[in-house]
Amino acid sequence: MNTQIEPVLLPVDREPVIRVIPMPKDSNAAGDVFGGWIMSQVDLAGSVPATAHAKGRIATVAVNSFVFKEPVFVGDLCSFYAEITKVGRTSIQIYVEVYAQRRLQPDQVAKVTEAYVTYVAVDNDRKPRPVDPLK
């Protein structure tokens, strides 16, 4: 039985919407990056395609699922990939995947997080407004 694990690679068919390196201030006493820091970055990453599709202001209304698969460490290069999965009348659901290049080593990659986040397009009065359907 072959127990060798296939190496994880960054997606080559798309570009990350953001890339960031967590710093010591983003970690706990054990040196792991706080989950809340990762969650805030996921929200930012998800907002990029949501804002583009909505052609304007959006608001985060739900974190539908959020899975921490592996820890993130200070010095990892985190790449956040986001894509639209569903569009409602006013809402846009985004799937976000996060990969970490361990200590900037391109051959040491881990998929660390995945999440579904829902945003709603809002007008100047912060009231929901319609968005275009997904093409």
From TrEMBL:
Residues 12-125 form the HotDog ACOT-type domain. It comes from Limnobacter litoralis. Keywords: Hydrolase. Pfam families: 4HBT (PF03061). This is Acyl-CoA thioesterase. PANTHER family: ACYL COENZYME A THIOESTER HYDROLASE, ACYL-COA THIOESTER HYDROLASE YCIA. Belongs to the acyl coenzyme A hydrolase family.
